[in-house]
Design the sequence.
């Protein structure tokens, strides 16, 4: 199969080719049933889902996920292939295109109508996620948006509204959420009346890696979040304590989770969940015991969930739009707690939509994105 050629399968991109940007209006008014008729369909075992890469520089797509998707120096572990790419940095875009044998495009929205799905692996461009993803979301293109999804609730809500308008399935997640270990814990406690939990997570800084532990906890414990706090001398390094206040769906009672953000060169974690009668279940999550653990225990499961969503649409979203919004709000409430509230609990309901978290290590790259999108 020539990956530069279009497949014969009926797909989302086939329909988009007919109208390009105008197709956004078409899909914006389409029903979920209509969207299902144009999704990617595998006609043979050789068919691969074609992905467009939004943002290349300093992304997980560059060095972690890309080699597994396009089999560059590693074994292909998915049924996907990256065929187009864009980045605000022309040099880095061309370097990425050469490395992964994909076609660079001039404008960020030029991949519309050419691909089955979009993967945005950047956390420096989060302040423009409502701009950079908009044409794809409003055209119904399945889209992966890397953590932490947005650096304000205004941007988060606008991005989700765009996805709803276009009936676009979206995914924004920590790779921790789809590991076998976390799924085991989630299944074990799914019918419990949870009374609290403790957890830890190896991290470098809060916004890029501390969030792994937080979103892991929210994957296991799905009772609504009321407030969050983050106590630490410095969010840019360990140690620190994140506290999450939950309201039990069963009876409305409040309980708390405590997450230690600890140092560690490896990507590891632990969680212990409590219920009534002093019963608990705990799981250590050691994913880097060998050279292939990161590839096969962490990255591949998440990528396969994304592939499932691209193939089957909204019915295979790993979580609801509302869940993504709550995860983002919890992350931001804890961040505000540290930056402005002295570590006190910040209620999600009181979080100002315009309040912005800090973009870690943004520098010149952040400035370039802000300039490009007029922010």
Sequence:
């Amino acid at each position: 199969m020539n990956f530069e050629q279009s497949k014969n399968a009926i797909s989302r991109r086939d329909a988009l080719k007919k109208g390009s940007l105008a197709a956004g209006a078409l899909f914006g008014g389409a029903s979920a049933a209509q969207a299902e008729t144009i999704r990617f369909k595998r006609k043979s075992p050789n068919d691969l889902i074609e992905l467009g890469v939004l943002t290349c520089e300093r992304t997980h797509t560059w060095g972690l996920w890309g080699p597994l998707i396009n089999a560059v120096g590693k074994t292909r572990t998915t049924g996907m292939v990256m065929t187009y790419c864009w980045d605000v940095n022309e040099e880095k875009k061309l370097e990425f295109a050469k490395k992964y044998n994909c076609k660079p495009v001039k404008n960020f929205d030029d991949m519309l109508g050419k691909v089955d799905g979009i993967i945005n692996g950047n956390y420096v461009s989060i302040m423009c996620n409502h701009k950079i993803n908009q044409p794809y979301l409003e055209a119904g293109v399945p889209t992966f948006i890397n953590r932490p999804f947005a650096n304000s609730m205004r941007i988060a809500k606008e991005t989700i509204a765009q996805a709803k308008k276009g009936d676009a399935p979206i995914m924004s997640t920590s790779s921790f959420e789809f590991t076998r270990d976390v799924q085991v814990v989630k299944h074990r406690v799914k019918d419990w009346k949870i009374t609290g939990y403790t957890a830890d997570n190896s991290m470098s800084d809060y916004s890029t890696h501390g969030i792994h532990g937080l979103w892991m906890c929210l994957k296991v414990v799905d009772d609504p979040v009321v407030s969050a706090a983050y106590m630490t001398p410095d969010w840019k390094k360990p140690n620190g304590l994140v506290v999450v206040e939950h309201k039990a769906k069963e009876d409305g009672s409040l309980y708390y989770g405590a997450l230690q953000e600890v140092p560690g060169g490896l990507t590891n974690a632990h969680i212990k969940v409590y219920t009534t009668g002093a019963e608990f279940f705990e799981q250590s999550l050691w994913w880097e015991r060998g050279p292939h653990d990161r590839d096969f225990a962490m990255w591949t499961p998440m990528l396969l969930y994304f592939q499932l969503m691209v193939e089957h649409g909204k019915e295979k979203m790993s979580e609801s739009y509302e869940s993504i919004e709550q995860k983002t709000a919890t992350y931001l409430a804890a961040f505000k707690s540290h930056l402005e509230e002295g570590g006190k609990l910040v209620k999600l309901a009181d979080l100002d939509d315009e309040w912005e978290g800090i973009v870690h290590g943004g520098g010149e790259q952040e400035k370039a994105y802000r300039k490009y999108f007029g922010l």
The first strand starts at residue 49 and ends at 54. Residues 176-287 form a domain with the Dihydrodipicolinate Reductase; domain 2 fold (CATH 3.30.360.10). The first helix runs from residue 12 to 19. The CA atoms of residues 230 and 335 lie 6 Å apart.
